[in-house]
Structure formats: structure tokens, C-alpha cells
Amino acid sequence: NISFSPGKTGEPLDTKFFDMWGGDVAPFIEFLKSIQDGTIVLMGTYDDGATKLNEEARKLIAELGSTSITNLGFRDNWVFCGGKGIKTKSPFEQ
After folding, report:
1. Based on CB atoms within 10 Å of each CB, which residue in 4, 19, 36, 68 is the most buried?
2. With contact defined as beta carbons under 8 Å apart, do 42 and 2 qualify?
3. How is residue 66 annotated by DSSP?
């Protein structure tokens, strides 16, 4: 599950969900690439959010400020708030 909002207003722009167990990672990667600088990004997983994550997807999420995405494994739960263009790690991740 993913949602993003402009940093200035916080109004939701778009929300999507992706099947990261049985689905294709390509639409998820394209969605991540479409996020504009200054956008707040909220992500959360349940059941399995890691099986289909490849190196490119993990790198794109890390660029949003995630430090845990590289260690996300099978059936791990994960919540994250970051931003496109962030220069540091996000303090909002568990």
C-alpha cells in the first residue's frame, strides 16, 4: 500500500496497492519513478511485501529515505514515511 501527497499541502494525490508476493514488480517501480520531488510518501506492508522487491525497487525506496528496505524479508511488516528528494534518512520507519 502506498500513498503520496505534496509536501506543501499534505492533500492526498494518489494511492495504490501492489501485490508484492504474486504480482509483477514493474508497475510498482514505474509508480515510484513517477513521484515528483517534494512529495511525501507513505508506505505500509502486511503479509508479504518483500518477495518481488528487486534491487531497483529497493534502491528507489531507499532514495525516499528508507534505511530498513534493504533488510525487508519474507512476511515482514513495515511502515514508512519518507519523501522524494529527501537528503537524510527518514525518522518515521518501523
Report:
1. 4
2. yes
3. -
pLDDT in tens, 40-68: 999 998 887 788 899 999 999 999 999 99
* Phi-psi group of 85: left, alpha or beta (phi > 0 → left; psi -120 to 50 → alpha; rest → beta): left
CA–CA separation, 84 and 75 (whole Å):
26
Alpha carbon distance 44, 7 (integer Å): 19
The pLDDT value recorded for residue 26 is: 95
Per DSSP bridges, beta strands 14-16 and 92-93 are: unpaired
Q: Mean pLDDT over residues 13-27, rounded?
A: 87
The Cα 28–Cα 76 span in angstroms is 18
Q: What is the pTM of this model?
A: 0.85
Q: What is the pLDDT of residue 93?
A: 83
Which of 61, 65, 58 minimizes the C-alpha distance to 86? Answer: 65
Could you tell me if 52 and 79 are in contact, meaning their C-beta atoms sit under 8 angstroms apart? no
